[in-house]
Design the sequence.
C-alpha cells in the first residue's frame, strides 16, 4: 500500500507533552483534515522520562491529558479538524464491572464525540496464508446517533478495510443486490442482471470489475440520500401538524 507523502506527515515526538503540543498546533492551523495520536498508552510524561527505574508515578498520564483535551475540543470545532486518539486496553484489579480499562483517565472519555471498541476475531486466509483479520467494532459512545451498535469489518494486511466486502454486504442488506437463498442478483451499470451462487463469487466479480463496484457504491449513496430526505420531510410534517 503506497502512501501519498504530500498528504501524510509522520512525526515522532520525544514526550507526551510534546506530542500533544504538536497536535494542538496542527489542529489550530486548520491545515489538516485529520490529526491522529497513536497511542495514548504509549505517551511518556516528563516525570517518567527523567525518572529512574522503580520510581512511582501516580496518575501522571491523566493529569497530562486533562487541559490539552479541553483545548483540542474547542480548536477542532473551530478549524473543522477530526482528532483521532488510539488507545489500548489494560487489565483492571476491580472486582466488579468490566475486567479491562483504558489508560489516560476520564478526560478523553468525556470529551470524545465517538468512541469505538475494536477487537480481533479470526484470521482471513488465502490457502494456508493469513492475508487479513476480521475485526469486531462496537460503538461505546456516540453523540451523532444511537450507541452500542456492533459490526464486523475485514482488515486486509497492507491494504486496509476490504472495500469490496463492505460494499457488497451493505448492498445486499439494502436490497440493491437481490438475494434469494444462496443466489445473488447483481444489476450492472448497463442494466444487465447477473446471477451468482454464494457471496464469494459476488466478491470475486466485483474484484475483477471495479467500475461496477463504483456504480454499486453510487446506488448506495443515492439510497442513503433518499432515506435522509424522507426523514427530514417526516419531521417537517410533524412540526407543521403541531403548529
Sequence:
Amino acid at each position: 500500500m503506497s502512501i501519498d507523502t504530500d498528504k501524510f506527515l509522520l512525526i515522532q515526538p520525544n514526550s507526551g507533552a510534546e506530542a500533544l503540543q504538536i497536535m494542538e498546533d496542527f489542529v489550530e492551523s486548520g491545515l489538516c483534515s485529520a490529526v491522529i495520536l497513536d497511542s495514548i498508552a504509549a505517551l511518556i510524561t516528563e516525570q517518567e522520562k527523567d525518572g529512574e527505574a522503580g520510581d512511582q508515578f501516580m496518575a501522571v498520564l491523566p493529569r497530562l491529558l486533562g487541559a490539552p483535551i479541553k483545548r483540542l475540543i474547542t480548536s477542532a470545532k473551530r478549524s473543522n479538524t477530526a482528532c483521532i486518539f488510539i488507545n489500548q486496553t489494560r487489565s483492571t484489579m476491580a472486582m466488579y464491572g468490566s475486567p479491562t480499562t483504558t489508560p489516560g483517565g476520564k478526560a478523553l472519555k468525556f470529551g470524545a464525540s465517538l468512541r469505538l471498541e475494536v477487537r480481533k476475531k479470526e484470521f482471513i486466509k488465502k490457502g494456508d496464508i493469513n492475508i487479513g483479520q476480521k475485526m469486531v467494532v462496537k460503538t461505546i459512545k456516540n453523540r451523532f446517533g444511537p450507541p452500542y451498535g456492533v459490526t464486523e469489518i475485514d482488515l486486509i494486511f497492507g491494504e486496509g478495510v476490504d472495500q469490496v466486502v463492505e460494499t457488497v454486504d451493505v448492498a445486499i442488506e439494502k436490497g440493491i443486490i437481490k438475494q434469494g437463498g444462496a443466489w445473488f442478483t447483481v444489476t450492472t451499470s448497463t442494466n444487465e442482471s447477473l446471477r451468482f451462487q454464494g457471496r464469494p463469487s459476488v466478491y470475486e466479480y466485483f474484484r475483477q470489475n471495479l467500475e461496477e463496484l463504483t456504480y454499486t457504491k453510487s446506488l448506495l449513496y443515492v439510497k442513503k440520500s433518499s432515506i435522509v430526505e424522507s426523514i427530514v420531510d417526516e419531521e417537517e410534517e410533524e412540526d407543521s401538524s403541531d403548529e
